[in-house]
Structure formats: structure tokens, C-alpha cells
Fold these 4 entries.
Entry 1:
Amino acid sequence: MSTLRVRFAAMLATAAVVPLLTYGAVSVYSLREGTRRTVTDGNLNVARQVGEQVRRYISTNLQILHALAADLDNAGLSAEQQDRIFKNYVLRFPEFRELTAFDPAGRPTATSRIGAPSVALPDGDASELYGVRMSPVYVDNDLLPTALVAAPIGRGGRQAGWLVGEFSIEELWRLTGRIRIGASGYAMVVSPRGELLAHGNPEERSKVARGESLASDPVVVALRSATPGTPEVRERPGANGEPMLVVGVLVPDLGWMVLVEQPTREAFATARRHERDLIAAISLALLLMLLTGLVWGRSLILPIRDLIRATEAIADGRLDERVRITSKSEIGRLGDAFNRMAGRLGELQDDVRKQERHAMFGRVAAGLVHDLSHPFKNIQNNCRLVLKMHDDPEYLDLFRRTTDREFAHIKRVFEDLRNIARPMPMERFPLDLNRLAADVAEAMRANASAAGLTVDVDLEPGPLYVEGDVFALSRVCRNLVMNAIEATTPGGRITVSTAAADGHARLSVTDTGCGIPAERIETMFEDFHTTKRQGLGLGLAIAKKIVDQSGGTIAATSRVGAGTTFVVSLARVPAPADGLRGEAGR
């Protein structure tokens, strides 16, 4: 039954559970990857938009400076007029905190400051952008990110000087501060050398003032070595150790980098919630499926278990066992067929028992008639003669001996019937098996001679002691010899022999008679079984009971037409003490 349950569970798992789990795993994976791709793409779009705004902001202001430089070359204004124009520009465009014009020799000619100018031409680290030279971003005295920008004055290759401006990129703070990704996500702007230029998180802006570098950030490192236009997506620990989803893009033309970071718990919160809901739904479906399968499987397995139990009961002989299956399916039909079969087997068993009783009674009656008819016939004939010869002493003596012999025979028949029904009381003492065999052979010689047979004796040298009842074992030996006499045709030979082997003593009776078929040897020791045409068939059954009670075994080997050998094997015992020799030799 356990094997059936295991197979049913395997079938259920193969047919339903495995596909459901596979579907669930694929769905969870698809949901996770799809959400990750969606969140990543969304953050990348934000980063690109921020980068484009930064690019426009820088390019617009640099183009303004470039246009002003071009106007100075064409207008031919005096230094005072230039000063006034510079002051107006600084007031109009707060990104430029100072504007100063320099001649080709590097001397200041006009400035928006009151007093000496504080700016100078950008050094060799400056980069060329929109026709304007721009120095690396640095932190000024007000702890704000600042850069020096210089636009050439003059056209057509004519160098009339430089217009240098102090360009404050504080507006980047406000630009990045307006960017929010979820509740905890921010944008950052990083220079090509890795300096932090702006941070959308107000709590992190102090890093800009401190000039903190992100050159070792894995996203920054990857972007600096990546092909322009290729975004970078990474997961890395944040400042507080919390896992962060970081996407980065390069700002076109500037070479600056925009990073957008967001805690992964927040970025994938919706996906994880949907994932939990999906897992819960799949688990619930799986549980319902298993419960349904168990209920359905129980309704299938229980009738099978009842059928197995009832079949085992029938095999044990309890033919009144029945199954109660109320199902109308094939299992129910099988249960009905089983009940009909069991009922029919009971009827057949009753018929067989009746036939066996009739056959046994017939055999017993026939055996009794056969075994008792001769003694009663002899007694009847002698009783008739005694009426005529009642005064003849010799005949009276013959009549007495005849009746004693025939009544003794009748008594043996009755004793056989009684002994086959209950164990025979026996007294076990050490006895010499050689002496017992010799005595029986000598007593049976007259019967053998009357049948035209010869009785030989072949005994083991020396005494051969076993433990048993001398009268019971003598009866076994006499029955075996008598059977051999009845089964052997005149001129045959009967041999009574003993032997010792492996701690056992063996008594053998061999004849040269007709033999016993192999199919009858297995049943010849059963009650009322005989190979002869007449008789009760109790001799060998009683012999086996006696040998079993003596702790030994009896067996037969035979070949049809060649003869039969019966072997009685008993445990050999040491020679008895002197006080027991009389008992052993009885």
C-alpha cells in the first residue's frame, strides 16, 4: 500500500505539482526581471533627462558668454562702456559673478567688479567647449562649485583678447534637488575627474563643499572607460551600507556624469510585493491542489486497501470476509465482484467439505468392513462349530485361541482409530535400536515366510541407543515390515537395517516390492491415506505420530517397480546406566 501511495504521490507531482511549480518559478523570474528592467529603464530615462538639462544649462551660459565676447569685438566700446555692460550682464545672469576682459598680453581692460579683477585666464587644464575654454570645477571661498570660462574676443583668427567669467554652477544644485526617484532616490552630477559637483540629497551636499571625489565609485570607473552613450547599471552599498541601485550616463559634449541612485528595497518594492502575492497565490493553488489530490487519492486508495485486506483474509481462510465499497465506479464494481467471488468460494468450500466428509466416511466404513469382516467371519464360523463340537476339548482350545486372536485384531483397529485422534501416551527411556530391530524382524519372519518372502537383518556393530518408548517404536517397525510384506510379491526380499551417522541412529526397512508413485509419497503419512485397495490407511499416519513424539523423523524413497525404503532417524544417546538397562531392554 505504501508503494501505491508513493506512486500516486509521484503521479500527482508529475501531472500537477511540477508544472505548477515550473509555471510559478518562470512567472516569478519573469516578474522579477521585467520589473528590474522597467525600474532600470525608468531611472536611466531620469538620468538622461538630467544630463540633457545640465548640458543645456552649461551650453546656454557658455554661448551667452561667447556672444558677448563677439559683441565686444564689433562694438568698439570704451573701457567704461565695457565695464557698464559687464555689470549689467552680471546683474542679469547671476551665473556669472564676474566678467573681465583681457588684452592679448593678459592685462585686464574692463571688469564688472569694483576694484581689481579676481579672475585670471584658465590654465592648461581647461577644456574647449562650444568655442569657449572652461577650467575644471573648483570650490570657491563661499564653498560653491565654480569654474572659469574664457571666450576669445575677435573673429577670423584675429585675437583681440579674452573675455573671462567666473561661472557659478550653483544652479546645478537646484536642478538636481528637484529630481526625486521614489521617496529616497536622488541624482548626482560628477565631473570627468570624479569630483562630486551636485547632489540631490540635501544631507549629502556638504560632500560637494568638501570636494569629495567619487573617482573610485564602480559606476564612475565603468563610465570613464565605457563607450560614449553607453549607460551603466550597478548595485552597490550606499553611504549607510544599504544596497543601492545606481544607473549612470555621460552628459553629451561635457564628459560629465549623471548618477541616479535609489535603495533597492524601494526600487523593487512593487516587484517584491507582486512577487509575494504571486508566490502566495501559487502556494494557495498548490495547497488546494494537494488537498484535492489527497481527498481524491484517499477515496481511490481506501477501497483498494479494503480489497487487499479482504483478499488477505480470504487467503487466510476467512471466507466470510466482505468489502463495503459504495462507489459506483469501476472500483465499486470490482468490490461487488469480489463479494460475489467470496460468497461463491464459501459455497464451494462447504461443498468440498461435505464431499470430503462423505469420502472419508466411505473410506472409514469400507476399511472397517474390510478389517473387521474377517475376524467376525472367523468368530461366526467357529461359533457355529462350537455348537456341534462343544464337548471336544481340543476344539474348544482352538476356539479360544481363534477368538482371542480375532478380538485382539479388532482391538488394534479400535486403538488405531482412537490413537489417530489424540496423542498416544509414551514413556521414553534409552533403548537399543539394534535389539529392537532384531526382535521385530524375528517376530515377522513367520508372516514373511507365509507370503514367500525372505527377511534379512543388517545391524550397526555394537549397541545403538536412542530414547523412546520400546512398545511404540516396535509398533512403528512392525507396521513398516508389514507394509513391506504386503507390497512385495512372492520371492522378494525385505531388509531391516540400522546405521549411525552425524549423531543420529537410523532404522531402515527396504523391500523389493512394486514401489510407490512419487505423487503419493508426499501424502502417504496423512490420516486415512493408503496405497492399498482396502484398509483404513492409519498405519503410516500412526507411525509418523510416534516418531514425531519421539523427536525423530520418518521419510521414504521409492522407485516404481524396484522397491521402497523407509528410514526412521532418531537422536543417538549415550549408553544408559546399569539401573536403566532392564528398562532399555524390555
Note: The chain has a mean pLDDT of 79.
Entry 2:
Amino acid sequence: MPVPSSRRIRTALWLATAALIAPLTLTLTELGGGGARAWLRLGSLILIGSGLVVLLIQQRTFERRVAAQARADEALRLSEAKFSGILAIAADAIITVDQNQSIVHFNHGAEEIFGYRAVDVIGRELALLLPPRYRSVHDKHIGAFARSVENARRMGERREIFGIRSDGTEFPAEASISKLVQPDGVLFTVVLRDITERKRIEEDERFMMDASTLLSHSLDVDSVLQAIADVGVPRLADAAFVDAIEPDGELRRVASTSERQTLTPALRQLAAHPITADSPSPVVDVLRRRRLEHVPTVDAEWLEANEDPGAMAAWQSLGAHSLLIVPLVVGDRAIGAVTLVLVDPQRAFSGERIVLATKLAGTAATALENARLYALAQRANRSREEVLGVVSHDLRNPLSAIVMCARTLEENPPADESGRRSLVTTIRESAAWTNHLIQDLVDVSSLEQGQLSIERRPVDPAQLVLQTRHMFEMEVVQHQIELRQEVPTNLPLISADSTRVIQVLSNLLRNAIKFTPNGGRITVSVRAEHMDVVFAVRDSGPGVAPENRGRVFDRYWQSSQGARARGTGLGLSIAKGIAEAHGGRIWLESSPGSGATFSFSIPVVRSDGKPTGG
């Protein structure tokens, strides 16, 4: 039976009241006449009126209750709408399942995280969102939670939990679960958060800490370079190279050793093929501009445009598909570059990986610079010890000779003039030799500080050879050495400090005399070559062994094999410094048993009076 509306009830009451008013008016008229029947009718009407009043009061109470219920219903509707809105916009996944593990609620956050639409998962089992290896364990945990007195708990307190997206990829997560017991069963609600980004940041921090420890483990330059090449593999790349700028400006390449073994042969070939300043490799541009370069796609066309032909086969064998070249920068200068190589086509250099590689390069650059500074400090300590050895050994002999001759002249001078002259000559030669040793030490110090004095002017190279030869004529005659010269006419003028060039020629001649046996031959030659004049000193001594050719210009290094006398080990080093200060170079050509030829170049004077290249 339908319930009458409040408006209909109100209309009925007013009609009943109106019906009552008419007879009541008549009754009051009758009372004025004093009739007993009128009193009886009045009592009846009053009783009926009282009932109607009560009915009106109940109607008003009913209306208030209906209004209050309507307000409560509206408040509930608004609360439910607000709650639904919060669930819809929540970034976390909020998933509700029933006691059979069937999904009954799947919010927008869950759609974003798992990659499913809510309509596609409602009614399906929760196992859909779990990696297969966790499904049986998860069911046991849910069952235990349902039987427990707890209403909520945090999931994964003892170990990490993972979800699986619609594309099959797994991700780390953290979650909490609550339960609601209803008469018709239990509902479980899970609030789950994807913590992939947080885990990545934590792993990056651990990686940087481990990398810093590895890179600071040694102060040996070679070890640090190898550590830089290895530290980014495999987290950042499948393989890596380091191209380090050596003190002489050349580039030294070191390849990683922690990659897959199948990549090692190609890496070794590429490491044996270092790049130069003229190479088309993008590494050169990265070093010059001190900015990283990302090569997202490495193909045959790119290799042809950016790599030397001799390295093409090794690059193709390596199978690189992407590169990231990051400079190693200290202050405002680049000291090298790291090339990270991706071979796996499923990997790419994301923005986060590039940022991490940049941080790693900063740490690596500091480690390499510290190792080099330490090596310089060690070299300085060795140099100091070697200088002390030179001073204590080489200066002692001439000083002892001077003291001995002076004491003889003072206490027991020879009676004949020739004897006294001989002592004086010995003192003078010993003093000259002492001064020569001191000057060598001064020149070495000046070269170290880049303060070697060079006063250029146009000079005739033939004249320099003639002056130097006169200085050694007596010495070569004493050792029965033939001194030849091969100096053509009309040589171009050179822009040089004549005193310094004579010093270079003198050091080379002195070295040749030291290793040329009696009866041997020394030839001094000069020739014009392109925009330089090349001076050469060739001897007929035993030559230089192959293993020692790279050391002959090192400071304090000297070979005693076949040497006539011990030297300071500074002459060739000083000669190298002077030649390079002029913008030239110095080099050695030698075969064991066939003598040695030391050559150095000095730029010629241009038409405007300046040295070529200056």
C-alpha cells in the first residue's frame, strides 16, 4: 500500500478541521439558548477537535523527521562522493578484494601503476597483479591475516614485495592491508605504492659510494685509469673506454675489463688504436668543449663519419648501438673522457642514467687528478734525491781537485813553471766543470717552472755549428775521434736564441764523445726540412738498446754501457726542453752496434721576421 505524502495528509487535516468548524458554530448558538442537547454536542465536538489537534502535532513531527532524514541522506551522499573522489585521485593504488580474493574495487592510482583499466580487472583474482613466485605465499599471508585479531598491518616487513604490470615488468612496492568483517564475508583493502624511483635513488647513492671507494683505493695512475674504465660496467653501460690526456698532450686509451667476455677482443683492438687530436672521433670535441655528447644510435653511417677506418672492423665487432661520452673535467680543463658503450638493444641512456654518469665522471676526474698530483709529488721527491746524489757525487770530484791543487800551491808549490801552470789549469777546469753542473741544475729548475729564458733573433745555423765545433776540437783530438761536419750553403735563417742552440749542440756532442770509442767518428750535420732546420749529431758508438730509447730524454737517466765517463743525466733532458721551448722537437734514431743519431729541429724565420708557427 503506498504511503501518503506529507502534503496529502496536510490537506486532509485542513478539510477535517473545516468540517468541524461549521457544526461547532451552530452548537455555540444553541448554548446561548441554554439547551442541554447543545452541551452534549459541544462535548463531542471538543473531543473530536482534540483528536484533530493531536493529529496535526503528529503530522508536524513526522515532517520534521522526514526533513532530518533527507538532510542525513544528503550528507551521506556528499561524504560518499568526497570519499570516492579521494580514492579516484589518490596516486597510490587502492584495491579491495573479497574473501575469495576477487577484486571489487580498483582506483585510478591502481590503473596508473599496474597498467590495467578498472573494468578489465574487477571480478578477477588478485593473483593477476602478483609475480608468479609470490602468489602461493601471498595466499597464506592473507589467510593468516583473516584469522588474526588485527584489523590492519604493514606488508613486506620482513622482505621486499613486488607487483607486476600489465606488460609483465615487475616493480618494487610497499603496501599496507586492512580488513572489514561483514555479515556476508570479509573485505580486504590494500594501499600500495610503487617505490621504483625511490629504490633507484637509493641504489644510485650506494653505487656512487662504492665507486668513490673503488676510485680512491689507489693513487697509482694506471690503476686509477683502469678503475675508471671498469666502475660504470655493468650498471651504466655494457663496456667503457677512458681517453686520458697525457702530460705530452697525447691521448692514452684504456678499455674496461669487467664486460662480457665476448666483447673483450673488440675492446682490446680499440684500446690498441688510440685517437689523436686530428681524429674524427666525437671524443675530441668532448675534450675541446668540455661537454658530454649522447649518441643514441650508432650505425654504419655514423661510424663511417666519426671513426678512423682502421678501427671500423673492431667497432662493428663490438656491436655498439648507443654511446655516452662524458668529459673528465678538473677546474676549467679537461683531463680525459669516458665513453660508455651500450650493446644490449634493450638498454638506453635515460635522463637519470646520464645524470648519474655525470656525477661519476666528476668523482673519476678528481681521483685521476689526485693520482697524477701524487705521481708528481713522488717524482719531485725522487728528483730531489737524485739532485742530492748529483751534488754529492759529481760536485765532490771537481771540488776535491780544487782543494788538493790549492793546498799544494800553498804548502808545497812545484819549483818549475810548468808544474804550477798545470795545477792552475786543473783548478780552472774543475771550477768550469763545477759551474757547468750548477748551470745544468738551474736550467732544469727553469724548465720545470716554464721560465727558461729564450731570446730569439735571426741566426745562421751554419755559424752555430762552427762555434760549437771549436769548443770540442781539443777533446776529440785527445780521444782520437774524427769530428766531421756536413753543412750545406744557403741554409735559411732560424729564429733562435743562439746561446741556447749552442747549448743543445754541446750537450749532444758531449754525449756522443762519451759513447764513441777511441778512433771513432762523430758527424754534425744540418739540413733544411720543410719549415724547419734540422741539426743532427751522429756517432759510431754502441748505439742505444731498444728498451732504453724511450728513456734517454728522462731527467737523471743515463746508461753506463759503453760510456767513457759518468755524466749528470741532465744533458739530453735539457736539450729536449730547449728544443721544445723554440717550438721544435728532438728525437733519437739508433740501432744496436751501429751508433746513435740525435736530431732536433728549430723553426725557420718567416718573411715577416717571425718563427714559423709563431
Note: The longest strand covers residues 170-182.
Entry 3:
Amino acid sequence: MPRGRRYSESLNTRLGAVLTSVLLSGPILRAAEPIPLPPKSDRWNAVRTAHFQLFGNATPAKTREVGWELERLRAVLLALQRTLSANSPVPTFIYVFKTHEAMQPYLPLADGKPANAGAYFQQSQAGNFIALSAAWNVDPREVVYHEYIHYFMRANFPPLPVWYEEGLADYYSTFRSDSGEARTGMIREDHLALLRDTGLMPLDRLFAVDRDSPEYNESLRQGIFYAQSWALVHYLTRGAPERAPQLGRFLQLLKQDRPRDAAFREAFGTDMVTLLGELVAYIRNKRFFYNRVKLSELEIPTDVTTTPMPYEDMLYRLGDLLAHGDADRLSDAERFLEAVPPTAPAFPGALAALGFVRLRQDKWDDAAALFRRAINAGSDDFRVFFYDGRLRWEELARETRATRTLGPKEQELLASARASFRRAAELNPDFPEALAALGRTYLLEPDGAPVDGGIAALEAARARLPTREDVAADLAELYDRKGQKEKGDAVLRGLSGPEAAQARADRQGRSELERRIDAVNARLQEGKLDEALVLLDGIIAESGDEVRIEMEAQRDQLRKAAARNRAIAQYNDAIALYNARDLVAARRAFEKLAAESADPDIAAAAREKAAELSKKTPNKS
């Protein structure tokens, strides 16, 4: 069993919807109204490009154009660094509604009503969901592109400073492609107007913003932070060509954990006040450059298939969208999914999406049953097998939380979880989460057991998720288990930033914990139970909840063993008095042991001997 690590992760996927600020007109549905099933006359098409799946009741041409535009954006991003493999850890599902009114029932809720938005982007562990309106008077691309940039950068680059990641996402949010060329870095007039009217924050404050900062989370402060982050990225990449390599150097030094001020001065050769002055002057400028690239110079896949969707498929896909949306929409998702008849090809998908609804409702047994039904109905959706494995892993974690052994039931759960994770990886080789989960199961193997299968899975996952601290930490631990500490060290050296520091600290903590547990085991082997308990009490006092739960269970067992050993020793002492014919002292010893021993067998044996001796000895002192 792994020591000092979490055994499981919450299945309550955190879903976030990112809303465009475009104000739209039209009636607002009451939040309490159930979403009506779409009419059977509604015509939907499924469009598949090389890297995206789209579903729309807009015209097939419009739906295809949305897919092609995203393929072009992906190609531009890929051209940023030719060595990129363009990881896409999860699929992206795009819903193209013909009008805003058609999309409105499926919008996330804001203050109990459908949000006043032209598009939104939702994330889950096994997929991204984008919904947008194709109406002629709405342009939802900025929000869609901004959030897709976040997904792409996090999947393909090491962790970036928050200001740079947000600035870059806004920089590419104005991406456009037409007339045979793609344009990036076009001006955000809303950001310029805000900065010209409000002013800028000091750069040291901008650089210090993280995801817990008020500037990142509070609506009144977000505007300046996003606008200035965009402006600084725009200036350093397009406004001052000589600064672009300095920006790269700055980010590299931060990756190496250099102090921010020292890294800035070394990279830019100036101070933050001076660079802020340059940025202020740039914002006041009236001419801004953007980047242009010919589409013919990009590697853009053009394959596309368009297929009319049967009504049952439309119900399943819209139900799946609702299942991954607001919690208040889950009852609507159920109605859509339960309306898919068992005879429809979409039925296994509907069962799987309904299983995800049950997951979000914390009805794990119901979810497990639905995923099993989906599998038995012939589902080939990798998500079904992934979540089925996760549920079995969670059950296994609960079963083994207070013990270090795997009984027949636990072995069966472990084998089932691994089989599901392997199947998920086979169905979608581009989904490294399944490989990461498969590798993690080997942490439950006892010391000395083979872990090569886990190492292979985690190495494959790490190749697709190079910045994930948990994947690296699990892999390093398995290398440690195999006696290859130098390989574990190399894995953690591949991380950078606070994630790396935390991973190394966690590993050091595990090593120290294992050293202390080894000391406990050494005392146990020497028969020094009381000394082992003292050491174990020290571990428990300094441990977190997960370790403390397991160690307290171990301590309870040791205390029972120590108490039994003491009782056996007292019983043997009483027998020695009996053999020495000191019957009065022996009787008293047996009576005392019968009254005080918590071990029922020893207490019963002591009472029996005391009763026997009471007939042979006087009761008075």
C-alpha cells in the first residue's frame, strides 16, 4: 500500500462555464421551467473534422466552417513550436445552434436564469464542451478561442505565469482566417479603452497575481488584470520585436525557480518601472501590428464528414451536454437521456451519460450500474470504461483504507479497475488520463511486487502530460519501489515551478515516513511492542488525515497485540507461582488477570484457574 499518499480522487468533477460578455436580446426562460424536448422536425447534423466533433442544427455548411476555423487555429498554435506534438488529452465536442433562441435553453444559469451569452465553454475530466450560436448578429468566437487556448497551452506547455497565460489567451482570442490567410494578435479595443481610462497596475503586482488573487477572481479587479496582461503580451511579442527573446528568457528563468526580480533584470536588462513606461506609451499609440500567415504555409487537415443525426442521437448528445452543465440542469439531462429508446443505437451512450449524471449526484452505486449496463449494451465510448474504472478504484480505496492487505474482494476490484482503464486507453489512445489511472493502481501493490506495468503506463501518460505533478510523483514512487531511485529523481527533475517543489517535498515526506515506519517494524521484529507503539504515536501526531486514519488502525491492532502479550506474560507468571506451590499468590494473580484482561480467552482461562485454586486455598489473606 502507498504510504503517505492519497488513495483516491473525488469523482465530483468540477465543471466551469466561461461566458462571453456579448449582450444579447430576446426573452429569458424562467429557470424553474423544464427544458422541452426538441421537436422531431428539428434537423441536426454530426460533423467530424480531424480533431473536433461537432453537432449542430445550424446549416451543415456553417457547422463545418466552425470546425475548419478551429482546425486553422490549432494549426497556427502548432506552428508556434515545430517540436510540439499538439497533445489533445480529451476530446472537444462543439454544439452549433442556429440561433440564440435555440441555444438559450441549454445555457448555464446566472442568478437563476439562462446566462445572457453567445457562447460558453465547459470542461470535464474526459471532455471539453463548447456551445455557440451561429446567428448573424452574434460573434462568440473570442470566448471560444480564449478558452480553447487555455486548454491547448496547459496540454502542451509547462505551467505558465497566470498573467502570461491569460494574456496569451486574449492575444489569440481575436484569431480570424479568411482570404487565404490567418491573422493573430489583432487589437482588443475593449482592453485598450479600459487601460486608457483607468491606468495600469505596477508590473511586480501584475506578475504576483495567481489564481487565488483578488485581481484574478473579483469582477471589479479582473478587468484591469486581463486587459494589462493582454497588452503586455501584445507589446512584448508584436510591439517591440527586440523584447520577444527577452520574454522567452524571463519565462525560462522563472521555470528554473529564479527569484522574479532577479530573473526580470537578467532577462530584460532593465527594471520593471522602465518597462511599465514602455507599455504605457505603447497603449497610447494609435498603430498596432498583428501577425499574418498564409493558410497555404500551415498544415491544416481538410478531412471532414457530415452525417444527419437521427432524433435519438440528438436527444443523447443534447442530454450529454446538459449532463456536463449546471447542476440545476441535471433533471433536464435525465429526461432527455431517458427518452432514448433501448432499441436505438444511441442507447448505450444515453446510459453512459445518465451514469455521469448519477456521478454528479453522488449516487455512485447507481452510476456504477449504469456504466456496466452501457458496457453490456455494447458501448465503445472510452469515457464509460474510464469512469467505470474510477468507481471501482474508489471502492477499492475505501476497502483498503485501514489495512495493508488485499483480500480476494480487493484483488477482484483491482483487476476490474485495471481492465477498465486499459480498455479506455485502447479505445482512445489520445486520452492519457486512463494510462495515468492505470499506473496509479500499482501503488496498491505490496512491497516487492512487480510494478513494471504501472511504470510503463505512467511513462506513456507522462509523455502526454509532461507538466502533471501527480503523474510524475506516482511514477517516481514506482521507480523507488523498484529500487531505481535515480530514475525517480530524474522524473521529478523534469518538473518545474511550484509543482516541482511540491512533488519533491511530497517525495521527501514519503521517504521520511517510510524510514519511520521501518523503525516501527524493526521494534516489532525484536518483540518490542511498547517501543513500537511509542514510535507509531509520534507518526500519527505529525501526519495528515489519510495517513493518520491508516496508522491509527495499525496502532489499534498493535495495542491489542501488546495487551494480549502482557496478559499472556501475567498468565505465565501465575502458572509459575502455581508450579512453585505458592497457591495463594497464584490464585490472586489469576483473579487479578481475570478482572483486568481485555482478552476474553485469557480472562476466561484465568477465571477457570482462579476457581480451581479457590477450592484449595483459604480466601483470607
Note: The two ends are 55 Å apart (CA to CA).
Entry 4:
Amino acid sequence: MAQPPALSEDYYLRNFETVLRDVLGRYGDLLRPEEETRISGFLALPPPARRLLVRMLTRQGPWFRPDGFHYPEIPDVPGALAVLCAGGFCATGASASTGDLVALLRKDELGERLQGFGIAFPRALSRDGLAELLSARADPEALKAALVQSLHPVAPRDPAWVRLAFFLFFGNGDQDLTDFVLADTGRVRYEAYPVDPRDRLFQARADVDFLITLREVQEAFAAAEAAGDLAAMARITGALVGREGHPGVRQSRRFHRVLNEVGRAWERRKEPARALECYALSSRPPARERTARILAAQERWPEAARLAQAMAELPLDVAEEKFAGQWLRRLARRDPLAAAWVAGHPPPEPLPGLRLTVPRHPSGSVERAALEAAAQDGWTGFFTENGLWQGLFGLAFWDQLFAPLPGAFQHRFQSAPADIGGPDFHQRRREAIELRLEQLAVPGALAPALLRVAEGKRGISNAFVNWRLLTQELLGTALAVLPAPVVLSVLATMAPNPMAFRSGFPDLLLYRLDPPGCVLWEVKGPGDALRPEQERWLRHFNREGVEARVAWIAYG
């Protein structure tokens, strides 16, 4: 096995500076003067000082003991600290709380401090217990002065500029320098899509600040609702709905979740107009369901029926699809459009199922137990669940997923485009997706095409492909035994909203090669129940001509 490439001694600094330089070049106009000064000032520091600050920023802090810094590439730690403190990048212990400083002490040092203050040292106490005792019994001012003098603690000063830079670079608050390391060591490989430094996810600083503080906005609204402060609720709602038109905000899944939460709050307050205003801007379920319910409550039957039919024809997730069918049947007595839909969509037939009594599998897995039971009846199989079908989607639409569209790729550490969960994903790629489906529908084209992609891309990160599960054996077998039209029907169903339809697939793919054939099982152990998304895919496969059933397992 090839050894991963060795990292340079200051790899972390190089990666950190890559983020800063990208942000200066791409978003310099969105930075406030003090932020731009701070970033430029950091880049002008001597290398040892830069290295030490990044080391602190990437360790758990915020407070540190200089005697704990042992880095070969920073031989003069005191000198680097002096530069950082003089430049305003580090704070000294005078600004720390007593609790911050006590947290830096080892257990034996806590005992010494207790004795120094004349406090009995109960050796049986844990380190946390000793810290609590010292903080409670010692004079806080005297303790702080002693610790500042002996520990010389330091902390990065006001690192908000760092959080801002990483948010702008990655476009989210979840990724950090770890992504650089995983890529640089070869542990994760990414597709070689182009990243245009002129392509920006954010156009206005207000949008950046809004998204960074969105959790606080969410909490503020919840507090206002709990207090019954309608004016504050209205003010926060106005700020939310006023952001919808901005690209970076529209692509934030949290933003749409908050819109739904705020809409439900206004529903509870019997304010349907405000609720509808929120739902109209949300691209995430259950916004359309809640809208349909409000319209029906207002006896706006034609509007409710049209919306329910739109949900039935192009659902955003399984829950929407199920709701739409049920709701149209309820509206059929009141609206001719709903009645016409119901006439063309009879209620679904009961799902096929089987009941098996099996011994417990040594692994405890009910799916493994079901596989062994199926083997006794002549079936060979794989435990695939969602991984197989997601993988087929990722392979089939690899080029479409990684198409270099504006805003899709902000950095080189993406396993999917930035808009994958947003309302624009399918709309912006509709023609390319439809063309790809036509190409794969040519008789004999599907399996060779997907196998070629797998061979050429194996190991490259794709949000839909789990390479450890999607082995050559599984992929080759699945494409050999599954009818191509069935696979194509799944791909076409997932394409409009792949994130919403990526789960609920049957657990087991069972097959025979002589004569060729396959069945799909959703395995349910004792006390387990079928979820809506699982029911949806089972019906889909049966409708497309592949036997898919629920295997109800009992142990005996």
C-alpha cells in the first residue's frame, strides 16, 4: 500500500493562508476595514508568529500555557508570543477569568494550589472536583493573580475574523483545515472541477452576517414567541422574508428550516397571512403542505387543490407525495380538479409481504438473518439499503453533479455542488439531466456507461457514492440482474430533488443468475414499522415490475 505523502512542517500555516488570500481576493469588498487590516496584518507577521497563532487557533482553548507549546518549527516560542501580543493578536492572562486559568492546571498542580491556600487536599477527588473546590474556596483575586504570574497564559484575541474568513471560504460553518489535511494526505480525493475565484456565493455583507447569526435569530424568535412579544416576532419575520432574494441565503438549508418554524409559530398564533408569507419563500417541506392546509381552512378549495396536485406531480420528498394523495382525496368532494385527479389515481394496493421465523444472527443484524433465510431458498444477495441506489445515481449523473455552473463550487473540498439541496439544483441542470437519461436509455447503454464511470472515478469523493459499499462485485451484479428500465425510473425520480429521495430503499437485493431474476426485501424485525419513504420505494419497484416486499422477521 502506498504511503501517504509527507506534509511540510508548516502545512497548517500554508493552508490557513490559502483561506485568507482567497477571501481577500474574492470577498475583499465585503470585509470591514478592521477585518481587512487584521488579515493583512497577520500575513505580514514573521513566520514563527504566524505558525504559533494558527497552532493556537486550531487547538482547544481559548487559553493556553506557553510551557505547553512544543513545536520543532517554532524554536523561539517566547519571541513569537511577544510579536503576537505586540501586534494585538494575543491577549494575556489579565483578561482571563479565574475559571479559565484554573482549567489550565494539572491535577497535581491543583493539589499544590489548594495547600498553598490552606485548603485540605482530598486526594480521592477527581481533577474536576479539585478544580471546583479550589475555585469555590480560594480568594478569587489572589488565585487569579497567582496563576497569571506563574502560568503566563495567552489566548488568541477576538478570533471572529478567523471564523468569518472560514465561513466565506467554505460557504458554511462546518468545514475547517481538516479538509485540507485529508486531501493533502490522499485520505480523501476530490473531483478536479474548476473553482473560479471571481465566482461568489455571497454578494452582500449583510447576507453573510445574517447567515452567521441565523441560529441566534432562530433563538431570538423562539424567545419572543415564548414571551408573547408579537412586535419582536413581526420584526424578526420581516428580516427573514426580506433575505429570500439573495443567492447565498436562498441556498442555506437552515434559512428555509427557520422560515418553516416561524410560519408554524404564526399558525399557532392564528395569523395565517404571516404564516403564508413565510411558507411562500421556503423551498423545504412541509411548507407546501402547511400552505395547502391553510388554504383549505380558508375554503380556498381551487388553490388548495392546485397546490396539492403540484405536490403530487413533483413532490419535494416522500412526506409531500403521501400528503398530496391523501389531501386530494379529501378535496375531491369540493373541487373538480381534485376529483379528476382522484379518478385517475385509484387507492394503492396493499404491499406484498412475507413472514419469516429465523434464528438470531451472531452479529445481531436482522438483515443478515434475512439474507441467510433467503439463501436457503436459493437466493444470493447483498445488504445494500440506500447505498446501492444512491451510488447508481452518483455514477449516472457524475458529470451533471460536478458541472462548473456559477456558484456551484466555491473551493476544492466539495463532494457535491453547493446547490444540491436547493430549489435551483434541477432547474439549472434540467437539459443536461434529461440528455443523460436519454443516453442511458439506449438499449445496452446503462451498465457499460456506469461501469466506465466507476472505473475512472473510483475513490473520488461524491456525496452519493459510498465506495466501500459500492464494490465492483456489487455494482456489476446489480447492473446485471436489475432491469435497466427500473434503474432508469429510479434515476428519473431522484433527479428533481436527489437529497429528498435518497433514502427509504429496500434493505436487500436478492438475485439468481440461472435463470436471471431479482427481488427486493425491506426487512423489519420485531417491533419495527414501515416508514413512508420505504413504502414509497416498495410501491415504485412493484409498479415498475420488480417484486419488492416487506420481510417481517420473528426469532425462533
Note: Strands lie at 90-92, 154-156, 353-358, 380-383, 508-513, 516-524, 548-555.
